[in-house]
Structures are given as C-alpha cells and as structure tokens.
Amino acid sequence: MNEEACTTIIVGSEMMADGSMIYARSDDSRSIRATRLVHYPGGKGPKEFVAIDSAFRCPLPARRFGFSALEREDLPYHWGEAGFNDRGVAMSATETIFSSEKVLALDPYVLGGLAENCVYHIILPYIKTAREGVLRLGSLIEEYGSAEGFGIAFMDADETWYLENAGGHRWLAKKMPSDKYFVSGNQSRYRDYDPENDLASADLVEWARENHLFEGEFDFHEAYSLESENDKTYNYPRVWYLQKKFTPSVETDVKVNNFPVYQTADRPLTVDDIKKAFRSHYDGTEHDPYLHSNPKEPYRPVSIFRTINTHILQVRPGLPKEIGRVDYMAEGMADLSVYLPLYQGVISYPKAYGIGTKHSQKSSAYWTFRKVSALGMINYNRYAPIIKARYLDFEARMAESQAEMEAEFLRLCAGKKRAPKAALKLLRDWSDDWLSRALRVASDLEERLFTELTKDIEAEYMFHGA
Question: I need a surface site. Which of 73, 227, 336, 450 has the fewest CB within 10 A?
Fold first, then answer.
C-alpha cells in the first residue's frame, strides 16, 4: 500500500453531543517527516503554485485569505494537511484512495497532475464556503487531471462536504448528513449518486456506463474503485472496528465490504470519543499488535507509529469563529501523544512548533513528542501506561482551563460585532501557555522513561552475585 495511508472520520452536527461538526484524519506517513505549525496572512499571495516534488504548477488568484496549515518542513508551502482560513472554512487533505486498474487503463492518473502535496495551498486560501472548495477542487481535477487517488473534506458553519476522485479526471462529492457519521480507511466509500444533491464531474455516470464499468444501478465504488485482497486486512478492519466502536448494536462482517457508507452511532459522540478512536488499535483483542508485541499483525490498526499528526477539526457554529473553529492536533502517534487545541483565532505559536526536520532536534516540538512515543514503543506494555496516564491528566486539566478561557472570551466579546483585542490577546496568551506546558510535560516524560529504561536494562544485564 501507499505509505501515505490515513484514516478519516466525519461526524454530522446531530450526531455530536454538543451540536458541532467534525472532520478528523490521521496523516500516516513516515515517522521522520516532521509537522510544523504555520499561519499565512491574507492579502497578496504567490501568483503561481510550483510544486517542489512534482511537475505540477498552476496560476493562483491575486489575493488570498489568511490560513493555518500543518505543514511538512521539507516542503514549504506544500501539503498543508489541515486547518482553517479567515472565513472559517476548514479543509483536510488527503485520504489516500485508489481507482481500479480497469479505470486507470481508460483514464490514467496524470503525471504532473494534481497531487496530494499541492491541493491544500491552491484551494483553502481562495474559498468562502465548503461548497466552493468542492467546486474549485473538482474544476482543477478536470483541468489538470489527478496524479493519484484521494479523498478531501471541506467544512464551514453550515455544511461538510467530502470529495472522492476517480481515475485521472472524475470525481464525486457528497454533503455529510447531519444525523450520521462516516469512516474511511484508504478506500473509496461512496456508492450511490444523487444528481439533485451531490456534486460530480458531468459525465461521471455516462462515461462509466459507456465503458461497461458497472451493471444495473450506478454504484460509484463498483464502477471506479479498487478492490483487492490487501483491502481485507489493510482497509476493511479499520472501517469495521470504528463502526463497531460507535455502533456496537449493529453486527457487520469484517471480511465483507458492505459496511454502511453512513452510520448512526448508538449515542451522541464527543470530541473525546473521536480522540479515543484515533488512539485505537483493536485494543485488548487478538489483533492488538502492541499488546501482543506483534509487528506482523495482519490487521492494520488505526493508531500506528508512523503517523505524523492526527487532527480533529471542529466547527461550533454558534460561537465566534476565533474560538468556534478548533483543530485538536496530536503530533506523531496519537495513542502515545497529547491532543492540543489550535484555535482559528491564534495565528502564532511557540517557536518550537514551527521547527522540524527529518533529524531529531531538541528545539522541535514534533521531535519532543516523537521521542516520548519512540521510548514508549520500546516496551509498550510497560511504558505506554505511564505516557497515557500523564497525557490524559494533562488533557483533563487543560480542558478545564479551556472552558474558563472561552467563557471569559465570550464575556469580552459581548455586544461587539468583532472580537476585541483584549479577547484575542486572552486567547493567544492561553494558547502559548498551554502549548508550552505540553512541551514541558513531554520533556518530563522523556526523562522518566529514560530512567525506567535504564533500570530495566540494568536488571536484565546485572551480572552480579560475586
């Protein structure tokens, strides 16, 4: 499978206990690819996007909205991953998916076309709504062709849209039902197409019919998507497991790809539920690779070591966008990391969060958190409980402080059309404080784990008894 292999969860507002909307994804790449936090101001932007690692290039509008990005240090102004723009629109890119060999023989991916590395920076700064994001992405796919398969989400105060591409030049996007949730693991999930409500390339159905890609009623997955033996252990189990976590009342067969595209949870979900989902790894079952110290486990879990970040984008429409748009971001492997709230109203971060290369650095937030997870994986069953307990305690204390800060922010904004400087300063100071505290907690964990590791090695190689 492609090493850029992620997991996606989308939740509608009626399915969330607090009425918010969620788009969440893990970026499962290579563990040495550091994430850095960047904010680009609005105004004049580059006239042209020129890819660093491919032949793709395209002109850009003269002006852009300011936007945040979880960016890879070795690819500046590339692969922004996730964030919000000044209009409060969220984007996450991308969930890697695959078209079938038959489709690619007829409409192959375009070398030098639109790839996962470039979509974020050529779309999010230029859209006012989620629907605009879909339409801009769709038009770029049709004009330049897709270089690879991907699923991409857009979210604003009213709607969440998720687009899956197909072959070189086709795509289908659907608005997320407000009373459902959706999960995906490196495979196209869409089935039906409703031209009254969905958005798609104009010849999506006609082209597939002319080329005999489906039988009977149109089925997007049947017509365009790859099905392979590898899916049965790499992709199916994640969809099966996440639906089982949220909807235990419904039994499905992990070996058969007839999982509902949209499912109803047995109870309203919370951000903590989504965090736990991305920390999961078939916990406590025979397929838990960490419990059983089995790196050859055939079922690919949600939480894996090579994750470089997990982001839970939350839109709370009833709040000022500065605090109503939050990205709960965990650096590295979510199971052994801490989730930190990145507010849209915060446009700068402690210096360490903007540093990260492919080599470990004391000055890098990414590597500070990565060291903790690497030590934890040396002896997962012994060290992971230490890490998890410390991070969960930190998240609980941060959540209490967060609620107090938001209440004060709203008090400062009362009766005002825009958030005043005092409210924005409160938010920025709170963010700087708690993001800095998280680094200190991780550093303390690193020292404790080295202490425990030293004692364990000594016990194993004592050579005493003279």
Answer: 450
